[in-house]
# Entry
Amino acid sequence: MNQPVIGVLPLVDIARESYWMLPGYMLALSQAGALPLMLPLEMDPPSLERALALCDGFLLTGGQDVDPARYGAAKSSRCGEISSGRDALEAALIDRALQERKALFGICRGIQMLNVALGGTLYQDLPSEYASNVNHSVTGRPWDRVAHRVELVGASPLHQLLGVQTLGVNSRHHQAVKDLAPGLEVMAISEDGLVEAVRLPGAAFVWAVQWHPEYSYPTDAASRKLFAAFVQAAAAGSRR
Ligand code: MN
# Structure
């Protein structure tokens, strides 16, 4: 089997005018058998096509809030920092990757971008828009500690993969899925009712989670299984 190549979307530090990367994204993919390559956020259409041809799958990483203009909402004063250029590149990439039946895995902002790219909406500021006792935005180390539980939807592929009914997950998100995009299917719901994992049925592996397996993979077998399933799907696609 050829080692699958995973294009990894970089994070952006606007104040430092920098791209950056958490090693966990890269290391979790490497340990699952992939070669992760960090992509640029500025690609003209021919370069985007070249990236699509080179990569067997794409990892949508965490980061800034998604610009509410992407889903036709006015920006709330409580919406966090946005990165419009990143939003635009990721939306274009998601579009083309789905057409090419590439494997896609979204983490945190990644589930939010996938939902918005497919026509869904987001809570712009969870604490003020979604009353709950659950803290979804834990601050401070260790980042792998369990913040809340999620219920896996019975018979979903996530349930089949992990073989458990509920899962303890870490949580560090300011926004979340509000209206689910047409076509997406929920695979996990937090104990206070938020969408925490989705997939696009009928596609190649197109999954996304609201928690952070890139922090928990060293200590958590479920996180490793997620990366393994993604990398295996990317490898299977590369053999087509
Ligand atoms: Mn959460």
About this structure: The chain has eight helices and 13 strands. The longest strand covers residues 185-190.
